[in-house]
Design goal:
Number of domains: 3
Largest sheet: 5 strands, mixed
Number of strands: 7
Helix content: 55-70%
Strand order of the largest sheet: 4-3-5-7-6
Structural class: mainly alpha
Radius of gyration: 26 Å
Distance between the termini: 83 Å
Strand content: 5-15%
Shape: globular
Order of helices and strands: HHEEHHHHHHHHHHHHHHHHHHHHEHEEEE
Mean pLDDT: 91
């Protein structure tokens, strides 16, 4: 008996080790990390301002409280930087942790309704979906928001009328926490889940624990807004509402109503293709909770997101767990729906041929000098296209659904490992990083001296603003407020827009460092 027990424990332990080995090369990269400016760099700069100033109340942009978004993710990043130090790795810890939480609750939600096999496949599909995997390596609000939503929806699904327990509390808590992370955008998933609550979980609305959870969840956001109004005034804090009105109207981020109809399928390939049949099957056959959790909720959320004027890829991230679960369920349907399996695999093969032709085209363009891209990146892109295309082309519809998914998941895992270890998903701005953090000359000049940015004489172009954020993140001792040339003392260091230097008296500043990759910003010292 002891031997059998030990053998069982050893088997479980071996499985857990394999899972860890499966995930590690996807999360940890041998390449250095660097940021993208928006929105990742913006959040990290605000988090750093929190630590440098000790002001945990206001989201600050260049010394000015802006309140253009809530402060949850900035607190998380600042907390990790406080514990682990100011590094690119520590800034990404919240997204990595909440990414794992999202995987766990996708597994649990799928297991509750479809069993362990489908749950395991759905978690693997979610992890290896391009849009999800990309956001795991971004220090933004989106991965924490997704995790909070999944926790809330799983708790609502688990809450039972006869048993008042922790799931009743969490069913109410997540909404307020979600507001602190993403602001008013949390209202869309809340609105999307309301039909499920009214249809199957109406007793939650009269549950004392649910109401207590709702109040407790809202308290941090309520306290933050109240303290902020007391400190900065309603006019400043009301920018949260003004930003919502701006994003819900015509703006530079506004897109047509059909944006998500192509964007979501594109960034969840090939899994979205497999999710279509279970979606249709579920609409026809499911009359239980699955109809609302896996069809009603994601479709209603997609509709609400489409009605909102501002549309971005990361808004669609909220739908990826349900696409993953539906796609995984197709492995079950494949055992009886042979005609559908043959057609779907045939379509995947056609996509594989298109990818292969794309790889050949890129190779010929590179060979003839029409494609200007570094050899390192070109080799990685070519490998990814060839790996995906060959795997998709060689799929056999006569194999079992589980074997087909095993092949696809293994191929996708190899591709994601190559992209991660190659730095394409972690080293987002190698040119800026090389021009600053890895440049001995400029870091020797700056050392630990306080560095500022001089106000520009006119508005900044988007690319110049992004570079300013990335340069600021590389400075060890940063002045978070913009300064004027007149306020600089002799020996002070600052970055200035090179286009503005001619407006200053000759000899007023000495240029210490410039680099084409940093243009128009140059490092100067006051004479």
């Amino acid at each position: 008996m002891q031997v059998n027990k030990f053998g069982g424990l050893k088997k479980i332990f071996s499985k857990e080790i394999l899972k860890v080995l499966f995930i590690i090369p996807l999360f940890l990269s041998i390449r250095p990390r660097s940021y993208i400016a928006h929105d990742e760099g913006y959040y990290i700069l605000q988090s750093r301002a929190i630590l440098d100033s000790g002001n945990w109340l206001a989201p600050v942009s260049w010394g000015t409280p802006v309140f253009d978004r809530t402060i949850g993710i900035q607190w998380m990043i600042a907390g990790c930087q406080k514990i682990f130090g100011y590094t690119s790795w520590s800034s990404h810890i919240p997204s990595l942790i909440f990414g794992l939480i999202s995987l766990c609750f996708t597994y649990l939600l799928s297991k509750r309704y479809f069993g362990v096999q489908v749950a395991s496949i759905s978690a693997g599909i979610l992890l290896l979906s391009p849009i999800f995997f990309d956001h795991i390596h971004l220090a933004t609000q989106d991965m924490p928001l997704l995790a909070i939503e999944l926790i809330g929806i799983y708790s609502i699904a688990k809450a039972e009328k006869e048993k008042s327990d922790v799931f009743h509390v969490i069913s109410g808590v997540w909404m307020g926490i979600g507001f602190l992370i993403k602001g008013f955008m949390i209202f869309l998933p809340v609105m999307a889940i309301i039909p499920f609550i009214l249809w199957r979980k109406r007793y939650l609305l009269s549950s004392k624990l649910f109401l207590i959870g709702f109040v407790v969840g809202c308290l941090p956001a309520f306290a933050w807004i109240s303290l902020s109004i007391n400190e900065y005034g309603y006019e400043v804090v009301s920018n949260l509402l003004h930003k919502l009105l701006y994003l819900s109207g015509e703006n530079i981020f506004a897109k047509g109503p059909f944006y998500y109809m192509w964007n979501i399928p594109l960034f969840t390939l090939p899994w979205f293709i497999f999710a279509i049949h279970p979606l249709v099957y579920g609409i026809k056959n499911w009359r239980d909770e699955r109809l609302f959790v896996f069809i009603g909720y994601p479709l209603l959320l997609a509709f609400l997101l489409s009605c909102f004027k501002t549309k971005t890829t990361y808004y669609g991230l909220q739908l990826t767990p349900y696409i993953s679960i539906l796609a995984a369920y197709s492995a079950v349907l494949f055992s009886t729906h042979h005609a559908v399996r043959r057609r779907l695999i045939g379509f995947i093969k056609i996509l594989g041929i298109c990818l292969f032709l794309g790889a050949v085209t890129l190779f010929l363009m590179r060979l003839n000098g029409f494609l200007v891209v570094g050899p390192y990146i070109f080799v990685i892109i070519l490998f990814v296209l060839l790996a995906l295309s060959i795997t998709w082309i060689l799929l056999d519809w006569r194999e079992s659904g589980y074997r087909i998914f095993a092949r696809l998941l293994l191929c996708q895992w190899v591709v994601m490992v190559v992209l991660t270890q190659g730095g394409l998903l972690t080293d987002r701005n190698p040119l800026i990083r090389n021009a600053l953090s890895n440049n001995y000359d400029v870091m020797q000049i700056v050392k630990d001296q306080r560095v500022s940015f001089v106000k520009t004489s006119s508005g900044l172009e988007a690319s110049d603003s992004k570079k300013r954020i990335l340069i600021a993140l590389a400075m060890k001792n940063l002045n978070h407020s913009l300064i004027s040339n007149e306020s600089m003392s002799e020996g002070d260091l600052a970055w200035i827009n090179k286009r503005d230097i001619h407006l200053l008296p000759p000899g007023d500043l000495s240029i210490l460092y410039s680099n084409n990759d940093l243009f128009p910003w140059v490092l100067v010292a006051k004479n």
